[in-house]
Amino acid sequence: MAGETHNATQSSATQERTAVVTGGTSGIGAAIVQTLTDAGWRVISLSRRNTVDTPTFAASASVVHCPVDLTTPQGVQLACEVVRIHVEQLHLLVNCAGSIAPEERIAHVAYAEVERSLRLHALAPMFLTQGLADLLRQAGGSVVHIGSVYDEIADTDVAGYALAKAVLPQLTRMQARELAPRVRVNLVRPGHIDTPMTRAAPADYLAAVAAKTPLGTLGRAADVAQAVMFLASEGARFITGAELRVDGGYLTNAGLAS
Ligand SMILES: NC(=O)c1ccc[n+]([C@@H]2O[C@H](COP(=O)([O-])OP(=O)(O)OC[C@H]3O[C@@H](n4cnc5c(N)ncnc54)[C@H](OP(=O)(O)O)[C@@H]3O)[C@@H](O)[C@H]2O)c1
């Protein structure tokens, strides 16, 4: 019906809901997979690794995993084809896959690294959404991109990463407008979350981050998963093109004196 939205959680409680989660094998993505399966969703997980030894995957018949590298157009296309084999409609796409190359200041970051980062953090979310848009429309589903507060922090050693993440707020707005009213598109912007990615950073850096965070600690992957669950829910039926920061207040503390 024209002008009417129909989101995933408007479906009857008995109808099985399916999500695609990129980067579902570690950290935030794994927490999202766990939270979704706990809530009765079926999940298709996409990331490079072949063997999946997380408890979520081992214990659950609700998760299908496909090994795919999302930095190439072929990988994104393969991912879309795999999803189509499994489902005819899609209630949620979470674009969470990501990685950081350490020590890449803007003055000497390599061209290839910026390109890799843009492919993974910007082009994959853009073209996965494009490739799965008809399945999302079928279900009246939604998309959640996992961005980062580093999309606006300029003082950074992760130049390629930050530039690529900065594409996501505009991508979210454009897709939200284009895919409405059937599909909602939103952005979650985590701050510092305790995951394998973050644990690669020096301990003194992480201690300084926690000290600068008003809530006094790093976040948990489950904190981000809860934000995703809200945006995918009926409670968020009037929210699209929006950004939800999950950073313990870190960005409120950007003053020079602090
Ligand atoms: N942790 C934080 O503090 C934080 C803060 C802000 C934003 N984020 C964002 O949150 C997302 C998840 O981060 P995380 O901390 O959970 O990191 P993580 O534990 O390192 O997990 C990253 C996930 O991305 C997948 N991945 C990496 N490169 C890939 C590729 N080329 N193709 C397909 N999958 C790929 C990895 O699986 P494979 O190794 O199997 O490919 C893994 O499942 C990322 O987008 C990150 O930028 C994290």
Percent helix range = 40-55%
CATH homology superfamily: NAD(P)-binding Rossmann-like Domain
Specify the oligomeric state.
single chain
- SSE string: EHEHEHEHEHHEEHHEHE
Write down the CATH topology. Answer: Rossmann fold
* Average pLDDT reading: 91
Low-confidence stretches: 1-14
User: How large, in whole angstroms, is the Cα Rg?
Assistant: 18 Å
How would you sum up this structure, described in words?
The protein has a single domain (10-246), classed as NAD(P)-binding Rossmann-like Domain (Rossmann fold). The chain has 9 helices and 9 strands. The chain has helices spanning 27-38, 55-59, 73-86, 111-139, 159-165, 167-179, 196-199, 203-212, 221-231, and strands spanning 18-22, 42-47, 63-67, 92-95, 142-146, 184-190, 193-194, 219-220, 243-246. Helix 1 (27-38) crosses helix 9 (221-231). It starts with 17 loop residues before the first strand and ends in a 12-residue tail after the last strand. The structure holds NADP nicotinamide-adenine-dinucleotide phosphate (NAP).
In brief, what are we looking at here?
By secondary structure, this protein is an alpha/beta fold. The chain is built from nine helices and nine strands.
Which features does this protein show?
Rossmann fold; 9 helices; 41% helix; 16% strand; disordered N terminus
